[in-house]
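Collaborator request, handled under Task 6.
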Amino acid sequence: MASPRSAISNFYSSAVEVSGQVLGEDSTGIPGVSVKERGTTNGTITNAEGEFSLAVTNEASVLVFSFLGYVSQEKVVGSSTRLQISLQPDIKALLEVVVVGYGTQRKSDVTGAISKISADKVKAVPVVSTEQVLQGQAAGVDVVAAGNAPGSGMTVRVRGQRSIQAGNDPLYVVDGIPFDGGLNQISPNDIQSIEVLKDASSAAIYGSRAANGVVLITTKRGSAGKTTVSIDSYYGVQNILNQVNVLNADDFVNFRKTAQNRTDLNTILAPEEIANFENGRSVNWQDLLLSMNAPQQNHQISLSGGSEKTRFLVSFNYLQQKGIIAPSDFSRGSLRINLDHEINKRIRMGVSSLLTRNLTNRVDVGNALIAASQISPLGDVRDEQGNLLLYPTQSEQLVVNPLTDIANNINKTWENRIFASLYAELTLGKGFTYRFNFGPDLSFENNGVYIGSETNAKKGALDEGQSNRADSYSYTLENILRYTKAIAETHKLDVTLVHSIQNRKYTYTRVSAQGFPTDQVEWQKLSSGTIKGFDTGFEDWRLLSYMARANYGFRDKYLFTLAARLDGSSRFGDRNKFGFFPSAAFAWRLIEESWMPSASWLSDLKMRVSYGTVGNTAISPYQTIGALTRSSYLFGSNPAQGFGPGSLPSPDLKWETTRQFNAGLDFGLVNNRLSGALEYYRTSTDDLLLSQSLPPTSGYSTIISNIGATRNQGIELTLQTVNLDLTSGFKWVSDLNFSANRNEIVRLLGDNKNDIGNRWFIGQPIQVYFDTRYQGIWQQEQAEEAKSYGRTVGQIRVEDLNADGRINADDRTILGSPFPKWTGGMTNTFSYKGWNFSFFVYTRQNFLINSAIYAGNLGELNSRFNIPQFIDYWTPENTGARYPKPLPIGNNNPDLNALGYVDGSYVRLRTVTLSHDFGKTLISRLGMQSLRVYATLNNPLNFTSFKGWDTEAGSSVNSYPSTKLALLGVNITL
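Structure tokens returned to the collaborator:
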């Protein structure tokens, strides 16, 4: 009989070292999978990427892979030393892998509030910018257009607005590295998943930058196997979503007659207007300005594959979006290379890299669109030689021809960016893993501007050129130590320690000149004109961080998470340079309790509760130190330059601090035919970074201080339902989310009084509309009362709030807020034998906007300018009108601003898609793995009472109009 020592020796002499990766349905690694050699106690668990390494007895050994919520799988080792295992989910649980900060978790183990958007959902909505994918897809995430010009991004708010003056944008993290700037540089086709960390517990690991939530973006990676080629391409055309029609020639003439109380055309129209009117010529300036059927196209080719040691993904993307107002457009070319390589059984290295070049052509849509909405329809577009006229009518030289304005305004921006995430991972043994991350980010932006003399800005004066250059250099460096330990099926421990450094440098150069010999110079040779101004600048900030997180699970029923982060920021003074941000969370999987009734209708039930603290550093560098301001003066009789104090130092500045409580319930019914989550949260933000007014005797106007507090609270509901799943192959699935948020100011300046000048009111939302309230139009029988207020019959009547017989600033009141009372999104998907039909509906309800279009189209409703057709103005024969009587040129209607406040609620059919996946017989003949063709409509229908360009386009008359898009596309895998 062999001795124990010799048995051990024999084991090691014949042992086989096996490594590999365990993948889920979405081809991402599953962490925490139990890997055991059958019939022994020999085993391990997978790391954050699903990787494992284990020495087994011999090639005949059988490995058992088990993970809660997945069907266990056994695999004979054989001659393979590198295994790739794909686990199939158990229908009894919601167990997809969720990316959390610095790692991944099973969804069943998550203790915080996290929303995930999978690659399928990203792919379902053809978008230019990644932020657009978030709209209506995640409960608690409110997304609206920051602008609708080509390449424009979105404004994203996670669980409301917390800060009054500091930033409210979430932190974006791409492949583990913070990503500053617009997400329109990332091709949505490259995205594997998007996770939104909403509560303080899940976001606290990002500490001082996580007060507004964290958006984690994970890009696709290659997998072992033969090389796969994917082609994704679409082409579509855009049209305006809603046009604000103005008065035609006949109605415009009647408008002028009514306003000026005259009927003789010679007294109300310019000679060229009379000639055009008598000849039946009328100009629709908007039709001339707006391009119909503006194309949009996107093409991407990706190659992925690899061996057991090396896996790769390479993608090339080109996107072009033409604007409906020429020559505005946006184009993007990008190259992505993601590479993973296993040097040996203990060391892995890899990189995620992005090289992109964007070109944006902007137009001065403000002046052009205002002009197209206001200018007389009876003017001339061109002179007799066919040249564009600067002024369409001789009588109007305040607003220029919008076509001339566009033709002589050039604004081009080129942006080149190199962004990467490099890592090296070392398996130390006994559950320890060390990972080194390095993320360089370089951005080079060049902007050229030319404003010709024939524009609204110059009106015949000297032309002007500008050259602007901005470069940023930043890097993130992280050391991550992770320890995982599983004891049987009872205890699971996962500890993560992080040391992080982030540094960003920003420089800019600006030069402008005027009076060029020819328009061809533009901004290319500024020295050929007269230099008008120049400036340079430099900015540098750093962040030093230490983070610890521990996840502990007992019998997969009781789950605990503790996290803490210490951040030191160069933006703050020595007294408050470091901030500490702790959090704790607990989840209870009731479904795993033995005393729970074994009802077939209940498939998942988990309660969650968390509390944590996060911060906000969103102020500019150097705010804590005093600044100097250059001044010009006379030294005797000679001009001289000097410097004096420009701002007071604020050495005591510190982070805005947000404390958040979150309670959640995850549930699944009838084998998860109905599943979802219900959340309640309450957030308190203190030490707001606000500009505090100073007495004039101090010599300064303001100083930034930590004063005031706000509160956010709300509820969120997320549902996924399998409505029909028939044996015939027909399936109907729905995804629905609902969010309601309320924010309010709790405390303000030292005296804790309302700040009326800034429209800040304690107990009210952070942003409100504070103005007089519209009550109607003064009628003939109210002539004497109107006179007592300094008004006449036919003018606007507003509420005398304090009943003092006067209308002044004291009669203003809070009319409403631009924040919606609730938002929601719903996606329905129908599939049958390769055919798929889906539609996505999004809504924002009960919010107010202040629209200049409703307030008289910026023209004070005098007859100088045209007005929208929906404006129903008062006349003695039309006393029920909402708008006042029009006035002669040079007169203004008082209180017209009261008409600008209107409800902006809308329900939008965001996307409709019909697609077909061709069968295996056809695609095999074509040498393909898959072939999908689809047709999509973006924004085909919009239901709202608002009559402006679009509630998302903004409340102003000069916002870039929203568009709808129709496209055809194809997805091919070879």
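The cover message to the collaborator said: "The two ends are 59 Å apart (CA to CA). The chain has twelve helices and 48 strands. Please let us know whether this matches your experimental observations."
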